[in-house]
Amino acid sequence: MLRSYLAFARQNPGLLGYAVILMILSSAGQTFFFSLFSEAFRSHYALTDGSLGTVFAIATFTSALALPYLGQKIDRVSLRSFTLGAGLLLGTACAMIALSPASVLFFAVCLFLLRLAGQGLMVHTAMTSMVRFFPADSGKAMAVVSLAYSAALVFIPAAAVAVIGVAGWRGTWLLTGVAVALGVCAACLLLPRDDAPGNAAKTSVQAAKPQAARPKLALMLLLCPTMLAVSFILTAMIFHQAVLAAEKGWPLELLAACFSVFAIAQAATSVLVAPVIDRIRAVRILPVFLLPLALGLSVIALFDGFWAAPVYMGLLGMSAGIDLKLGTILWADLFGAGQFGYVRSRFEAIRIVVTGGAPLVAGKLLDAGIPLASQAAAYAGYAVCASALAVIVGRSAAVAHK
Q1: Alpha-carbon distance 258 to 76, whole Å?
Q2: Average model confidence (pLDDT) for the chain?
Q3: Can you give the C-alpha Rg of the chain in angstroms?
Q4: How far apart are CA 41 and CA 311, in angstroms?
Q5: At how many degrees (to 10) do helices 13-25 and 138-189 cross?
């Protein structure tokens, strides 16, 4: 299997490199990168932890509202033009933060642009391009891109902290903007000359399956309870992991160390399952991909021994490893390349809103006296019910796809 991935990467270095570059550049708009500057932001804008979180949440929610409008344009313009536009937006946002006055309103606008261009458009563009260029091997393509991106994430936070120590937080954001501009230009050089909408699928070395009757957008909404489960539950549980450690009597440092188990399980599952998705297609995976998540949540709800922590994180990692690829490939299977940007941008907008609200929901339940372990049991039950729903909806989707 490893040889097949290496052969695939050697055959398509340019297109895969394009997607990897965009995923790395998306870091500028991701939560983990933003968190490195939280202390500087609180000081410069005179914000408390709570008010900084509020501004961040508002910017995230509003960016989710704008994503469907901009994201669907990838279906109608060349990929090169769309990439340059998204890169210009992200680079501008980085420069605005670097030069920003002590205005919370100005800061909120910067965050809106960062979240929209980074977390939203750059990831959307990378994933859409992989589906269009490799319709029959999209799972394998995204697995290669995800592994390269995961490897890069090991170094990005450490590099950012080192640059902050030398150039300060303003200088770091300015250099990030320059890196975005140069990176986007480099990525565009890796695209084929003829990258108009629809040409990617036609020139791919693999032919896509014919798309006869395509389902309506309502089918996507019926699949949302299943497809959003991992995003919501993972965000809620990980955001409040300190509470879970306190409930179980575990050292927080040891629980945090179990993220390595999560990362390994996520990467391994991603590599192993991607060819399976390509072979039997996404709709058949729907009823089972949440079961490891449900099992992991059940373990954490029922057992207090520390052995449960790595088991819990590993099982969550398995479902997370399937989640991103499954959704992307599913929309392509059901709606075809011509409508993919339209559908995926709307789903991503819903997902961003759901993940933004997950910590709030879990926090309110904690305030009401419901322990996180009890919430985990409820989330496990939800995952099982969502899997059962996927069996019913998935059959309709399979019929529509034939």
Answers
A1: 44
A2: 82
A3: 21
A4: 37
A5: 80
